[in-house]
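Ligand-bound model needed. zinc ion.
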Amino acid sequence: MKAFVMKEIGRVAFMDKPVPQPGPADAVVRTTRALICTSDSHTVQGGIGPRENLTLGHEAVGIVDVVGSEVKDFRPGDRVLVGAITPDWGDLAAQNGYPSQSGGPLGGFKFANSKDGVFAEYFHVNDADANLAKIPDGISDEDAVYCADMLSTGFMGAEHGNIPMGGTVAVLAQGPVGLMATAGARLRGAGLVIGVESVPSRQKLAQLYGADVIVDFTSEDVVERILELTGGQGVDTAIEALGAEVTFQTAVKVTKPGGTISNTGYFGEGEFVGIPRAEWGVGMADKTIATGLCPGGRLRMQRLLQVLETRRVDPSHLTTHEFPFDEMERAFEVSDKKLEDVVKVMITF
Ligand SMILES: [Zn+2]
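Prediction:
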């Protein structure tokens, strides 16, 4: 089968690979749609260390092709969504409520990390009964595939943010995860959602997904403006959706005592991330810093699909580009170099 791989750090290409085979509890899925993620770029840049001929991609939907002998609830032909995170559900971290950390920190992140990913004609799913979810008839593949990571991670930002009903939320950066965090904040009952973003097309999307006010960091002081918008109090919840030290520090500065800084960003550089000491109350300001990797799993995927089924959120506005799998090299370049105001690139198989 055809697979799109990271040959080595900094180099991607197509290659032929054998179709994977399932173990007793596993499934093999024939890919129908996939999305390219900023994480794929981080991986190719060496973010998880060197890899050779690793199939990229972790956001996909498809049709079950084969199941192992112990799989109970899925059969060949089922149309399925697979979470980007595919935990080992028997692991103690999963039993403790943190499935994405099964098998060690970030251990649930297997696709395009500890095993081949989904940018291939077929891909392997461990623990199929726990990691697959059937897609209801009324939901298209193009919408469902957003549940794999974008809705899951963005909503996690809002969930971990402990947003009070009517509370104030700042979402720092309106990339696809930030946009879904914005949508999640509105769904969680925020009374005021402030979206921080400078790109006009993303500002528009932020408003569409629920931002009441846009703050443009290129023309105004973000901290000053957010304090002004909240009567000098700061926000109940600041969601970091970029993965940059300056954004993280802004999040700490604009959060009120008792509030939560909810991180979804990937911090790929340096040995430490600095916390602004004064605004942290020299360590005593009652500000909680929450971190997380989106949990995968069938139950979570079913819940996210339910959000789509009742049209609470329409993720289709995130798709700015669409390419057939054959044109993956160009598709990856558009996403990687952030060309043409890209938000998300959809791949059709
Ligand atoms: Zn992703």
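Residues 2-149+294-348 form a domain with the Quinone Oxidoreductase; Chain A, domain 1 fold (CATH 3.90.180.10).
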